[in-house]
Amino acid sequence: MDLNRIVAQSLRVGVLVSAALSLFGLFLWAIGGFRSVAVPNVMSIGDIVRIAFDGDLTGFIYLGVIVLIATPIFRVAVSSIYFAAERDRAYVGITIMVLGMLLFALYSGAAG
Amino acid sequence: MLVITPFEVLSIFLMSILAGLVGAIFGLGGGILIIPFLTLVEGVPLPYAIGASIVSVVATSSASAATYVQDRLTNLRLGMFLEVGTVLGAITGAFVAAFVPPGILLVLFGILLIYASAVMIAGRKTDSPSGVAPDKVARKLQLGGKYFDPATSATRQYEVTNTLTTLGISGISGLVSGLLGVGGGIIGVPTMNLLAKVPVKVASATSNFMIGVTAAASSSVYFVRGDVQPLLVAPLMVGVVVGAAVGTRLLRRTPPLRVKLLFAVLLVAVSIAMILKGFFPEIVL
Question: Rounded CA gap, B147 and A4, in Å?
Fold first, then answer.
């Protein structure tokens, strides 16, 4: 399969899913009477999923944010696999370097 | 607790359609419009404005990048190579941001924008000079490419030069992105166009492609820090996707020269707003 198409499709799906989750969060806010939202302190992905299942609008919007942040990271990972299949060593190295830094940002963000 | 009214959410949504549109056309994330709007018009504290902006930048760039990648306008190899610089810069910027007075950064960034617009206007006659010789790195990494321009109905070949300097400046654009919650396209597009000699449409498309990854790096830092307010980010995430869908269709038709002039005018307007905000942080329109 062609890299252009794989990249385009994964970006499109990620963006649309995150926009839909945000829109649903806003919908919950509207039917809940537009009440102000207290932003919870740092939550794990598990916490976010749990409050979303409880029908919490912050849960849905934060799920959208997580899907959105994961979208370009997924795109880099897919490119890396593609270049490995093509035996293009220089670009496998480049994409793995980028992927490593992105995962470091997630990890150190979560740790700090 | 930040009180957000339905009217504010609606106005943020409408503005973000414009930000998505402008972002898609000019290869930006739209943060340069979102941050002035949130801080100047809505009176949102800067950290929350940056947190919401940087997340929506991921949405704008990913939405428009999807279309440009499918149209083969994006130079995937060049983008992935330069991401090494932008991501490193973005992570550094997002961490350093907590220690730097925002006023100083806003003023410096405003000056940088004026410089970029001057360079854009001065170089507007040569969209992509032919006969560019690729440098050693560009040859080794096969960075040259070709694209179909519907505005002129022709396929154009191009080469890439000054590759390592471009990588270095990409690092600086990443740093600005992480510090200020923008995509960094405002530095990346002129650099790719004027220094690396990439045609402006390819530069815009490739910039959009890179910004998604750049902003994802800084977004994760701001998100975990608790600077992403759900009711600020939700209308942005929906609005920029709508705007980007319209903007990607416009770039297909607009001639390259006009793209460049519009870009320069945009740079000047935003730079003035940013410098003012830097000197008078309390300004709210």
Answer: 13
Give the one of B3, B67, B213 whose C-beta lies nearest to A102's C-beta: B213
Query: CA B231, CA A57: separation in Å to the nearest integer?
Result: 9
Interface of A with B in 67-106 (CB under 8 A): 68-73, 75-76, 79, 90-91, 94-95, 97-98, 101-102, 104-106
Residue ranges covered by each domain of chain A: 3-111
Nearest to A98 among B6, B77, B80 (CB): B80
Beta bridge partners of B157: B146
Backbone φ, ψ for residue B78 (5° rounding): -60, -45
Name the residue among B22, B25, B19 with its Cα closest to residue B38. B19
Residues in chain A with CB shorter than 8 Å from the CB of B231 are 26, 29, 37, 61
Number of H helices, E strands in chain A: 4, 0
Residues B272 and B110: beta-carbon distance below 8 Å = yes
Q: List the pLDDT tens digit at each of the 285 positions of chain B.
A: 678 899 999 999 999 999 998 888 877 788 888 887 888 788 888 888 989 999 999 999 999 999 889 989 999 999 999 999 999 999 999 988 888 887 876 787 677 678 767 766 765 555 666 778 899 999 999 999 999 877 778 888 899 999 999 999 999 999 989 988 888 887 888 889 888 999 888 998 999 999 999 999 999 888 888 889 999 999 999 999 999 999 888 876 666 677 768 778 877 887 887 788 788 776 665
- Enter the tokens of residue A18: 């995150």
Listed residue (B51, B37, B85, B36) closest to B211, CA to CA = B85
Tokens standing for A12?
């499109």
**Separation of alpha carbons A94 and A76, rounded Å:** 10
B22 residue type, one letter = V
Q: A90–B140: do the CB atoms touch at under 8 Å?
A: yes
Sign of CA dihedral B81, B86, B89, B95: negative
Determine, for residues A98 and B221 on separate chains, whether the beta-carbon distance falls below 8 Å: no
Half-sphere exposure of A74 (CA within 13 A, CB side): 18
Contact A4 B140 (CB under 8 A): no
B 70-89 residues inside an 8 A Cβ radius of A: 70, 72, 74, 76-77, 80-81, 83-84, 87-88
